[in-house]
Amino acid sequence: MTFDPSQNSTLFTDQVVVVIGASNGIGRAAASLISHRGAKVIIADMNPDGLKELAAELNLPANQVHVLDVSDQIAVTNVITSIIKDHGKIDALVNSAGIVGQSNVKVEDLDWALYEKTLQVNLYGAIWLTQQIIPHMKKQAYGRIVHLASIAGKEGNPGMAPYNTSKAGLIGFVKGVAKELAPAGIIINALAPAVISTPMNSNTSEETLKYMISRIPLGRTGQASEVAEIIAFMASPACSFTTGFTFDISGGRATY
Ligand SMILES: NC(=O)c1ccc[n+]([C@@H]2O[C@H](COP(=O)([O-])OP(=O)(O)OC[C@H]3O[C@@H](n4cnc5c(N)ncnc54)[C@H](O)[C@@H]3O)[C@@H](O)[C@H]2O)c1
Predict the structure, then answer these.
(1) CA-CA 20 to 30 A from 58: which of 29, 33, 144, 232?
(2) From the DSSP assignment, how many helices (H) and strands (E) are in the chain?
């Protein structure tokens, strides 16, 4: 590989980038930034209103917008098939779809159906998306896959067993799959944010937020635009010698 400093490898010229969970928060900011960096972005989410707003903002035609519930394996297969049919390839996947699930509940009191639902969205959805996309990336011997994990998957938050389990599972999934995919030229990483100001945290109590911020050396919550910057790097050709890793974006909370 030759290094040409005049080439900007953080751009997405001629690339197709799929962003899942694009209706809100981190996914929305990432889709917007990656689109402004030159990609043809395909946005998907289960929330059609947010998709409509973002599609209007980015001026996207209907075949770049998909309503998708990632906890439905058949729907995941159908959407990826339809993207390939319409656009011919997928250079990068950013998967930001996620739910908190039950929180502030002791492990012995958790509702199993809700536990499973959190795993289906946060973990199985990520696995199914990866499985569907890999064959297409292998054909072009290039690909970037970014999954949103969480500091909860590294440290574990009390009262949030389903979320912790899903994110720790995702971190483990990415580690192993990276080693399988490295010879094929495909790079896969996770990202572990601490607390970011998005709709996901809109119901978090003042007291919990205060506690979370007290653990962040930078003394504030992160912004979706800040997370989008690191995602854009991870999804771009510039991220070429890091795979299987969980990047940190925690304001200094997790220095490991
Ligand atoms: N905000 C934080 O503090 C924080 C911290 C750590 C990790 N994360 C992770 O980052 C990711 C994005 O979080 P966010 O803060 O932007 O949340 P958000 O709630 O603002 O956005 C999540 C998006 O995922 C979509 N979504 C939910 N379930 C879905 C499903 N079944 N199928 C398709 N789309 C679905 C929602 O409609 C929404 O648009 C999540 O995976 C989350 O766990 C967030």
Answers:
(1) 144
(2) 9, 9
Question: Residue 3 above 90 pLDDT?
Answer: no
Give the rounded percent of residues in the chain with a pLDDT score beyond 90: 93
* Span 164-198, pLDDT tens digits: 999 999 999 999 999 999 999 999 999 999 999 99
Q: Count CB atoms within 10 A of the CB of residue 93.
A: 27
Closest ligand 1 atom number to CA of residue 97:
24
- The alpha carbon of 125 and the centre of ligand 1 are apart by a number of angstroms equal to 12
Q: How many angstroms does the Cα of residue 97 sit away from the middle of ligand 1?
A: 5
pTM greater than the 0.70 cutoff: yes
Contacts of residue 214, defined as CB under 8 A and 6 or more positions apart, other chains included, come to: none
Question: Please, what are the domains in the chain?
Answer: 16-249 (3.40.50.720)
Q: Residues near ligand 1 with C-beta < 6 Å?
A: 21, 23-27, 45-47, 50, 68-71, 96-99, 121, 148, 150, 193, 195-196, 198-201
Give, in order, the Cα–Cα distances in Å from 228 to each of 8, 123, 241, 251.
18, 21, 20, 15
Reference 196, options 26, 21, 24; nearest CA is 26
